[in-house]
Amino acid sequence: MNVLDSKDAFFAYPLLFKPILKDRIWGGKKLATLGKELSSESIGESWELSMVENDLSVVENGLYKNETIKTLIDSYPEAILGKSITNQFGKQFPLLFKFLDAKSDLSIQLHPNDELAKKRHNSFGKTEMWYIMQADENARIILGFKEDSSSEEYLENLNNKTLPSILKEYKVKKGDVFFIETGTIHAIGAGILLAEIQQTSDITYRVYDWDRVDENGNSRALHVDLALEAINYQKQNPEILYDKVENNENLLVSCDFFTSNLIPLNGTKEIDNSNDLFYVYICTEGNFEVQFETQTMNFKEGDTILIPAAMQNYVLKGNATLLQIFIK
């Protein structure tokens, strides 16, 4: 009998998924340091947990190995997502988790808000958070404008190829956190490996690509007209300062779309999930295990796991840095 035939017999355990690797013009080889098996020397993204159409994550471990996230949620929506999330999103997984390796600069881009994304693309918007896992010396990101701007100033600089001159740069290091609201113009600079948490959306408006061309001399498409209405021209303050209390859930971001905490795990931490929520843990360094019922499952740096809502009590044990993400 197929394990999904009995709808009432969901077995809750930490779900690990097969990475979906994306070749990018700006990608490199650093994702191999996270245990990813790279098929080329320009892998820019590893999608760790995705319900984006045509990019459905597949379970790598346990009873539901080789099942897609969509199949599982279709069969057991409340057991995986929790009742409140199912009521809000139906049988949709509302977040997308990635690792990104920028060997060279990404394009300067932005993402539309929910209203515009729904109207134009029948999609969620794309609010996101970055956690810097490794950064080369002098690596930087671009986030927002240096000062309040306008569509006129933006277009003038875009047309003159001087757009970066009015944008804000941040030098980055391991452990830095940035919150990127929709409409914020941004780019990840060369030499950065990061974890990204975002709404389930693959809608990006690319406005400047450093005049790059591919091996055939072709430039990538730009979305200047679409971006114009979507940009937030106000100065932003995206850098997140946070505590690092051991074995504690240190708040990083709390917004309408997700809450994220940093857990510097050193020993054990008991989790009481009686609030009927799913949790995602991203291991950015170290090793840890999850103890539940009479079982123990081991995980390592580069693993992203989904704890279903039906898994009410468990223990995290090990020496690791964990990002904990959930939706209230």
Quick summary:
With 328 residues, this protein is mainly β. Helices cover 13% and strands 40% of the residues. It holds the Pfam family PMI_typeI_cat.
Return the CATH architecture of the largest domain: Sandwich
Order of helices and strands: EEEEEHHHEEHEEHEEEEEHEEEEEEE
How big a fraction of the residues is strand? 35-45%
User: Structural class per helix/strand content?
Assistant: mainly beta
Q: How many strands in all? A: 21
CATH fold group of the largest domain: Jelly Rolls
Global shape:
globular
Rounded average pLDDT: 95
Approximate helicity band:
10-25%
Number of helical runs?
6
Task: State the CATH class of the largest domain.
Answer: Mainly Beta
Uncertain spans? none
The CATH superfamily of the largest domain turns out to be Jelly Rolls
Largest sheet: 7 strands, antiparallel
Comma- or semicolon-separated keywords:
328 residues, mainly beta, Jelly Rolls, 2 domains, seven-stranded antiparallel beta sheet, 6 helices, 21 strands, globular, zinc
Polypeptide structure, described:
Residues 18-123 form the Phosphomannose isomerase type I catalytic domain. Its cofactor is Zn(2+). The active site is at 206. This protein has helices spanning 69-75, 77-81, 83-89, 114-121, 151-159, 224-230; strands spanning 15-16, 20-28, 43-49, 51-52, 55-56, 95-102, 108-110, 128-135, 140-145, 167-171, 177-180, 186-188, 192-199, 205-208, 239-240, 250-254, 259-272, 279-292, 295-300, 304-307, 313-326. It is mainly β. The protein has six helices and 21 strands. The protein folds into two domains: 15-240, Jelly Rolls; 250-326, Jelly Rolls (Sandwich).
